Amino acid sequence: MAEDVSDSAARHTRGPLRLNLLWYQGRLVCEVEDTESADPVCSTAGLDAEGGRGTELIDMLADAWGSKRTVTGRTVWFELTGGERLSPRSETPW
Question: Which residues pair with 69 in a beta bridge?
């Protein structure tokens, strides 16, 4: 999943990227910082499409995910826990 978010950022943005992995209160948090200012687009790819399933997969597999604007662009994040699923696209919990 971290590879998918990083790859998407590399394809759709210009400028530097940063991948942060954090262990926070029993949660693995993955953040990808990039220079894009727009929020990620949630879409459903066609059956024959070779790509375009990134946000759909993150939404299905992550316990929570979202994005936040930064001074230099945005951070797309997701988290994985061993317990209950948090509401999708919730505010950053840390």
Answer: 74
Mean pLDDT by 10 residues, the chain (94 residues): 88 89 91 88 66 76 93 94 58 55
Distance of alpha carbon 14 from alpha carbon 34, whole angstroms: 8
pTM of the entire predicted model: 0.75
Q: Following DSSP, what letter does each residue of 59-73 receive, concatenated?
A: HHH-SEEEEEEETTE
Residue 36, CB-side half-sphere exposure with 13 Å CA sphere: 21
**Residues 55/43, Cβ–Cβ less than 8 Å:** yes
- Show me where the domains of the chain are located: 2-81
Q: Any idea which residue has 């991948």 for tokens?
A: 19
**Closest residue by Cα to residue 43 from 62, 61, 65, 58:** 58
